[in-house]
């Protein structure tokens, strides 16, 4: 049985399982809950790797034990396809993803995920597989794929995609970037005999020019700003909750795992100039919650917002520094103990046009 057949059978089986999970609960679960999901992103599962992108095996095991008791874990493709086609999901559905094909995922995370029979996805840089010592080999990737792990595109070289070369025009930058993405996808397809056309933006960085080109080419984009996902989400920049480093605390993760999307019809391009103080207006394309119920935070501090009907407006309270930041906006749901969540990211180059790691 070849890899493509195995992958197809796995998807069919999961769709049957999802249907069985949903049917008993349809009478009791509100429609908005069945149109929501949460996607988690990890990098390292190790105590020997950079703390900012790492979670210890013990912490990761605690995450999975809680998830196993309170949530339904779906393959990323099943979750995304269900949302795109308007199919209902189980309540509290989640997907688990990893960025970068680190060997410690196989050594420390894979056995735990297999123990719970939890599907997951790894976004890889194909030229680094089997080359860097801290990366998986293609033999390991293929074995994990046979065991139900999905592999997807993280570009050829994990570069900052918004960075331009000297004297490079916007059109030249976009052509070069899309060539990079397509080349990585071709390598994955050659090795695994399937192509999801899913891209995780390195460092979570994107702008609307890149997002639109990605969508036009048939891809789905995954970012790293926080928030839940629904059928109304931007499928060129799907939010994922970072779950390692300072975000590994299980108590705070529980709130995120239970979150639902705060849907807006006019997301703002996240690419800004150094020192800008963006003025953002977001139009909620849902009647609940009310815009007046939304609270927004910048660097963990509440910021001033104004509302007019379902339009929520705010100004970032200080000039943006080089790097990545975001405003998180949340509002209570009609479901007790659960919150709607939306994140507006900001990506800013330094004075030399470089994006810091």
TrEMBL record:
Its EC number is 3.-.-.-. Keywords: Hydrolase, Signal. It holds the Pfam family Polysacc_deac_1. Residues 92-315 form the NodB homology domain. PROSITE patterns: NODB. Residues 1-31 form the signal peptide. This is Polysaccharide deacetylase family protein. It comes from the Bacteria. CDD domains: CE4_DAC_u4_5s. It is found in: Secreted. GO terms for molecular function: hydrolase activity.
